[in-house]
Amino acid sequence: MDAAFTAEQDEIRRTLRELLTKRSGPDEVKAAVRTAAGYDRELWARLSEQLGLPGLALPDVYGGVGCGLAELAVACEETGRALLPSPLLATAGLAAPLITALGTPAQRDELLPRIANGALTCALAVPGGSLAPALALSGDNASGEWAGGGRAGGVQAKPGDAGTWLLYGEAGQVLDGHSAGLLLVAAHTGGFARSRTLLFLVRADAAGLSRTRQTALDETRPQARIELRDCAAELLGADEAADVPGVLAAAGAGVATLLAAEAVGAASCALDRTVEYVRGREQFGRAIGSFQAVKHRLADLYVRVQAARSAAYYAAWDPAEGGLALAQGLEALRVVAGEAVQLHGGIGFTWEHEAHLYFKRAAADELLFGPVHALRAHAAERAGLFAVGATSPSGDGVVAV
């Protein structure tokens, strides 16, 4: 493993930071999230057409740039620094890998080029209040319990006419679900005895589809409630026996890496802003940043951010470590955001201050993709750390009984 960034990765970082510094400051973020789409469509078009951001990790045969997860993680770190509201995570991080893994050649040829050029945005709709169980971040998703199942609950699918399907049910907290042009809906089919979870494509204009944008703690991650009433849908892929939980788990490992990189970017920017503030804010005739107690607190935060960054890019090299990297990133962002509010003093406690944008992102991401202790517990379980007679990774002894 080469830990150094390539010239191409450095250029992605430089170009994005330069653009987002000009176009996505705190005031621009607050304005963008209050639009109907929940993001700046003009900026998204520029990121898509000029920088190829949504197609960064897609093969060039589909109009993508042909890079990999590491390059997309670099981009996500920069969008995280700006807390950029955009469909990037839901579209390029979640939907594109699922379509690539499960879609028929015709579906891939139709959808992936439109994702790569930014014309099509997507959202993954799963029942329940959290994506973590569906993506196998906080537990095994093979049983399908996260999707409801049985005779009721979740979203149910039944065959329609001419190879179509009809979906009935609802899903809450769908990331970017109110504005996406295409929904990937997880639904049960086969009845109670042979129930299995499949993914279906639902177009934004499908009859029987109702979408309502919900009030979210973090407005930069807009969420929607999706209701399907005998809504026409198309099966993603051609094989009803496809291992959908396995594909979701693989996509979850990748999106956990991207989320970890986003959290690192947000934590790093919050720390930079706090350092800048304490250098200029005076108390008792001197800058508060010169006090030893403040220096110690900032040094601890710096170590947390750097450790989380290392974990995120290790996961970009080995996505199986995405869950642990996400836990590290979410914890770092939570601690840094909390300290940023504290070290800004009285002004930091006002709800309108930009420090609260980072605090809200930290809290909301842990609700959507955590909690941290569940991410770590599942990673430990997968590694067999708590199994009877388990040995350490180096094989030098028993670590749990």
From TrEMBL:
Residues 6-118 form the Acyl-CoA dehydrogenase/oxidase N-terminal domain. GO terms for molecular function: acyl-CoA dehydrogenase activity; flavin adenine dinucleotide binding. Keywords: FAD, Flavoprotein, Oxidoreductase. Residues 258-382 form the Acyl-CoA dehydrogenase/oxidase C-terminal domain. Gene3D superfamilies: Acyl-CoA dehydrogenase/oxidase, N-terminal domain, Butyryl-CoA Dehydrogenase, subunit A, domain 2, Butyryl-CoA Dehydrogenase, subunit A, domain 3. Its cofactor is FAD. It holds the Pfam family Acyl-CoA_dh_N. It comes from the Bacteria. The keyword Flavoprotein applies. The keyword Oxidoreductase applies. Belongs to the acyl-CoA dehydrogenase family. This is Acyl-CoA dehydrogenase. It comes from Streptomyces lunaelactis.
